[in-house]
Amino acid sequence: MRSREEQIADLTNLFGEEGTFSFVDDRDAATKHILEAERRAEQRARAECDKEISSLRKGLSKCADLTGGFASPDCSIPFLTISVPEELRLYINRLKEKVTQDSERLDWIERHRATQAVYLDGSGWHIVPDGESCGVGGETFRAAVDAAMKAEREAQG
């Protein structure tokens, strides 16, 4: 991922091209653009976290009911985890990891939606960057996105 300064410099150059936004301070406009994107990302992450915590509370409360424990959705997470079997807690942690991985994939897709071609054929899913003749692929869409993310990380060093 590029730093804030790299993104601002890139947008400043883009805004400064002939016939675009010459009436505003390009660096100021680029900075505002990046800060707005960061605020939206923080709000989205906060909302996702709140939703996951609420879902976890409800799930743990239901588990406590099923296992003979007592809990209400308003109980603290530490209290709820005492009455839930370890195996179930590990399963919940694995699900949370999968949600995190899918969130990373969705963020990558959102960042590259205008610069990558995606198609499906008999051999699976393929993601090809604009201007290139070949890309990466996988049997599933998740596998193709993972391969594209890995290729991007390797290219960045």
Q: How many angstroms does the end-to-end distance come to?
A: 11 Å
Separate helix tally: 5
Q: Describe the sheet with the most strands.
A: 3 strands, antiparallel
Could you give the order of strands across the largest sheet? 1-2-3
Which descriptor suits the 3D outline?
A: flat
Element-level helix/strand string = HHHHEEEH
Beta-strand percent range = 5-15%
Category from helices, strands and their pairing: mainly alpha
Low-confidence stretches: none
Using DSSP, what is the number of strands? 3
Radius of gyration: 22 Å
Share of helix, binned: 55-70%
The whole-number mean of residue pLDDT values reads 78
**How many structural domains are formed by the residues?**
2
Which secondary structure elements does this structure contain, and how are they paired or packed?
Blueprint: H1 4-15, H2 26-66, H3 77-82, H4 86-112, E1 116-121, E2 124-129, E3 136-138, H5 141-156
Helix pairs in contact: 1-2, 4-5
Describe it for me?
- This protein is mainly α.
- It has two domains: 4-113, no CATH class; 115-157, no CATH class.
- Helices cover 65% and strands 10% of the residues.
- The protein contains five helices and three strands.
- The chain has a three-stranded antiparallel β-sheet, covered by helices on one side.
